[in-house]
């Protein structure tokens, strides 16, 4: 573990041992105060990787997020380590593009995420959650990650994309392995296995769905992507494939991560859970607090397109600039007692990004899904308890639990 007393200029922020139990909040607290834009010279796990700047305060992340001309998503990828996912594939997703191409592609995807379309899914999402929770009948214990969160999020995003229910497990495994490539439990074969096996399977499965929707259009999101046009242009096949991957990956990881962390926080803070049980109208506020304290993705990254200065740090052209949401969402200048879970807080936060062109497309769906999950879980199991040691995904990118063993009732 990095010693908090050590010199900050020697600190390497993505060292695996510092993230075993989740983000190193004590270190981030010190960086926000003493060195808000911090240089790490290397990533030990990936010897060929260049160093990176860490942006830790809410104001600075806000600045970087909104200045796509200076801080590019397309130039070097969107994670601190460039080598964990092929750059050409990242650039085929709108999350890895800059305007104007980003805006054209994202506009096509937005056709599937209109408020009306999301709202129309509420009864279906509630039925999915109820069905998964009903399967626990008669059980005394379960794992909230694998027995509740995973099947719910897989079926919700699957229903949006037109994935048949029998393929949910396959897609969940592909997403967990690809995004969790640094965790030996989620991805036993590591990054090379992702590149050699998982990505080719994702492409092949997507191609089959795309070909089917071209012949037989439906009302699912895959069909929307295949047939949508902006300014007379349709998406190219690799853009559809990577767009499909982006939506399924985000739908798989973000809601699962925040729901499980929210339930853990409620079990660890029974006074807050009781406030919620006494007034279930606070569920949306509790969701925002969980998003603030436990953003599903610890960071996203940009690359400087020119020499620039940020909060006193001189950043050179081509250098990585990493925005740490797990830090900015606990920024003392924004939140009183930022490490305290408070279901009444109803905060603004940066869990979906900090505005600008890359603000998360799926915010309305994520919020609706999280509200239904918390609501239905608390109604059925108001006295659920943690029944073992929760384990965190070993990653400085995915901020989520891989196990959360619970006792459903005392």
Give the arrangement of secondary structure elements:
Elements (H helix, E strand, L loop, with lengths): L24 H10 L2 E4 L11 E4 L2 H9 L4 E2 L14 H4 L10 H10 L4 H6 L1 H13 L6 E3 H18 L6 H12 L10 H26 L5 H7 L9 H32 L1 H9 L4 H11 L5 E6 L3 E3 L2 E3 L4 E5 H4 L34 H18 L4 E2 L4 E2 L8 E3 L1 E3 L3
Parallel strand pairs: 2-8
Antiparallel strand pairs: 1-2, 3-5, 4-12, 5-8, 6-7, 9-12, 10-11
Helix pairs in contact: 6-7, 6-15, 7-8, 7-11, 8-9, 8-11, 9-10, 9-11, 11-13, 11-15, 13-15
Portion in strands: 5-15%
Kindly state the percentage of residues in helix: 40-55%
Q: In angstroms, what separates the terminal alpha carbons? A: 36 Å
The Rg value, from CA coordinates, equals: 21 Å
Quaternary state of this entry equals single chain
Instruction: Give, in order, the helices and strands.
Output: HEEHEHHHHEHHHHHHHEEEEHHEEEE
- List the total number of helices: 15
Number of β-strand runs: 12
- Shape type: globular
